[in-house]
Amino acid sequence: MEMKRQDFAYDLPQELIAQEPLEPRDHSRLLVLDRKTGQRSDRHFYDVEEILQPGDCLILNDSRVLPARLYGNRKETGAAVELLLLNPHGHDVWEVLAGPGRKARPGDILTFGGGLLDAEVLEILPGGNRLVKFRYEGNFYTLLERIGQMPLPHYITHELRDTERYQTVYSRELGSAAAPTAGLHFTPELLERLKNKGVNIGFVTLHVGLGTFRPVKEENILDHKMHSEHYELSEETAELINRTRAAGGRVFAVGTTSCRTLESVGLTDGVVKAAEGWTEIFIYPGYRFQVLDGLITNFHLPESTLIMLVSAFAGHQLTMETYRYAVEQRYRFFSFGDAMLIQ
User: Fold this and answer.
1) How far apart are CA 40 and CA 42, in angstroms?
2) Strand boundaries in 144-264, DSSP class E
3) Residue 291: what are its φ and ψ, rounded to 5°?
4) Are 95 and 87 in contact (CB under 8 A)?
């Protein structure tokens, strides 16, 4: 069945795009959806403690957002320049988005943090991104923490006072250009209560690329070229998932990133093996899930690959009806918005 991009459109009033995170984190609203019966209920995020049962497992993405936006100057002219780090290519070479305009040319030297960090432009890639090689003393990531800025999504126009609010409380592996936002609702206390109840918690790492925000431009969604993201799933997490499934427990992915990681390594019988690599998996209606029993996720942009993934899991018609319901009930949308639990 051919699916059109417009099949995933919905009307969203501007004022429902959350500009700031709620305090405390777990007081966001939670729309619970039963994908078999279509039944919906309006809860709060802390109610996941009631919904998850002993023997279930939660899989969290522990990637941490890089302060990946750098403001500096071209060394020769002093002209202002901005870089957004996208993907590491090894040996201090990164693929970056450069602004303003198309000024950064191969051979140009860019400087940041008053000379603490220099970058030489090596190459212009197809599509306009640049490859640059960084030069610095000390630790690159420590420098980034000092002079880089958090790259908030374009639809968040308010300044974020506490940048840790765009990190999950369990983030530890630096490398994402955007937060795995479904996890922003968890607090250390809620995770502790879930563990005490007998819910097992495992971690994967998938570094979120900015391609996650790239709109689908093709009319037929199958013509869309998916971006590539690096993931890692440990032996320990693989064993936890396999043990959970064998014992009849449910596997819940927190976020589309955890979901994409699990489905990238899930074998046809639902067994998971430890793996590391790059995934370009594109999940849309008609996809047969191998690993997932439940999904916790935020509300996503219209016509995005993320709403397509949710539609694959919950069913296209039910997903679009539920999104319209969420708009009517004035749920908060996108990165700092409310959450949805689908089981």
Assistant:
1) 7
2) 173-176, 200-206, 229-233, 251-254
3) -120, -40
4) yes
User: Do the strands 339-342 and 29-33 form a parallel or antiparallel pair, or are they unpaired?
Assistant: parallel
**Residue 268 confidence (pLDDT):** 64
What stretches of 113-219 show up as alpha helix (H) in DSSP? 140-147, 188-197
| Pair 121, 300: CB distance under 8 Å | no
3-state secondary structure of 320: helix
Average pLDDT, integer, range 227-251? 94
| DSSP characters over 18-84 | --S--SSGGGSEEEEE-TTT--EEEEEGGGHHHHS-TT-EEEEE-EEE---EEEEEETTT--EEEEE
Lowest mean pLDDT among 16-25, 65-74, 81-90, 192-201: 81-90
User: How far is residue 294's CA from residue 34's CA, in Å, rounded to a whole number?
Assistant: 10
Q: Which amino acid is at 291?
A: V
Q: Which helix (H) or strand (E) holds 96?
A: strand 93-99
Query: pLDDT per residue over 277-310, tens digit each?
Result: 999 999 999 999 999 999 999 999 999 999 999 9
Residue 28, pLDDT score: 97
Confidence of residue 175 (pLDDT cuts 50, 70, 90): confident
Q: Which uninterrupted H or E stretch holds 98?
A: strand 93-99
Which residue type sits at 191?
Answer: L
Largest CA distance in the chain: 65
Q: Spell out the alpha helix ranges (H) of the chain.
A: 48-51, 140-147, 188-197, 235-246, 255-265, 305-314, 316-328
The sign of the dihedral angle between the CA atoms of 220, 225, 230, 234 is positive
Q: Which amino acid is at 219?
A: E
Q: Residue range 186-210: average pLDDT?
A: 95
Going from the N-terminus, what domains does the chain have, and what CATH number goes with each? 5-65+162-342 (3.40.1780.10), 69-147 (2.40.10.240)
Residues 6+ apart with CB under 8 A from 78: none
Kindly report, residue by residue over 152-174, the tens digit of the pLDDT: 888 888 888 888 999 999 999 98
